[in-house]
Amino acid sequence: MDRPVLSPDFTIEDIHKLREYNYYQTKDMSWQERIDYYNSHGMEVHKIIQQRKLLK
C-alpha cells in the first residue's frame, strides 16, 4: 500500500487513511517487530519535536 496523501485540513478521512496504512504496514509483524517499529518511529518524532522546541 502506498503512503497516503493527506488533505491540508486534516479531516477524519485522513485519520482513517493513516490507520489503514499503519494496519497494512504492521499486520504481518510479530509483537517484537511491532514494538521495535513503534519505538523507532516514536524516537524520530521525539527528535523532531525537540529540534522545533529549540528553534523557538
Strand percentage: under 5%
Strand count, sense and barrel status of the largest sheet are: none
- What ranges have pLDDT less than 50 throughout 5 or more consecutive residues? none
Rg value: 14 Å
Number of helices: 2
Helix content: over 70%
Q: Give the termini distance in whole angstroms.
A: 37 Å
| Count of individual beta strands | 0
What overall geometry do the principal axes of the alpha carbons give? Answer: flat
* Overall pLDDT level: 93
Given the helix and strand composition, which structural class is it? mainly alpha
Order of helices and strands: HH
Salient structural properties:
mainly alpha; 56 residues; 2 helices; 71% helix; 0% strand
Question: How would you describe the overall organization of this protein?
Answer:
The protein is an all-alpha fold and 56 residues long. Helix content is 71%, strand content 0%.
SSE topology sketch:
Blueprint (H helix, E strand, L loop, with lengths): L11 H15 L4 H25 L1
